[in-house]
Amino acid sequence: MICVSLPFVDEKTVGRLLDQKFLVEVRLDLAKDKSAFCKVVKKYKQIVVTYRGGDDIAVRAKFFEKAIDCGIAYVDLGITDSELKNILEEKLKNSPTRLILSYHNFDVTPAKEKLVDIYEKCRSEGADIVKIVTMSNGVADNAVIMSLYEFSQGDMIAFGMGNKGKITRIIAPFLGAPFTYACYSRGKKTAQGQIDYKSLKNMIATIEKYL
Questions:
Q1: Domains of the chain and any CATH numbers
Q2: Catalytic residue numbers?
């Protein structure tokens, strides 16, 4: 499955993507206008709500709580968001919403052992899915990232950022990732190295023909 990451909140766009069987990530931290958020999460459920740091934790918690109350598919918290996780813990226990705990390294790909430790730590803290995203600076980094799936219980999404990490975004679903991420369009990227969802869909479909 492909998750289309949106840096804006728009009911029609979300609905159109869901009709095409995509998962949709709403990046509230990148959205200038959040006014349509409540309407979107009330109407649609196959959504990942992500709200990275920067704004007041109480403000972020309010949006996450609304999403969980509406029963959306996933909320995505950073591994350093322990206070926010504690606030949401009880709601998550009584909701169908699943928790993604994310680790990002925007500079390098750390050693495999460190990344495996992060994966295990996130699982022990109640993550339904562990997302590990690092900067790929070449083939060796891609090999480290892809090797992580050896330890996955079907609950890991791992890929590399940057142009050199693009291949890992394409391969991830074939190694066991529940989904991979794409941008809405080339001008609407939410991370380095993202591929637009139409192109990524075609690439994955081409590979599937030979499997």
A1: 2-208 (3.20.20.70)
A2: 104, 131
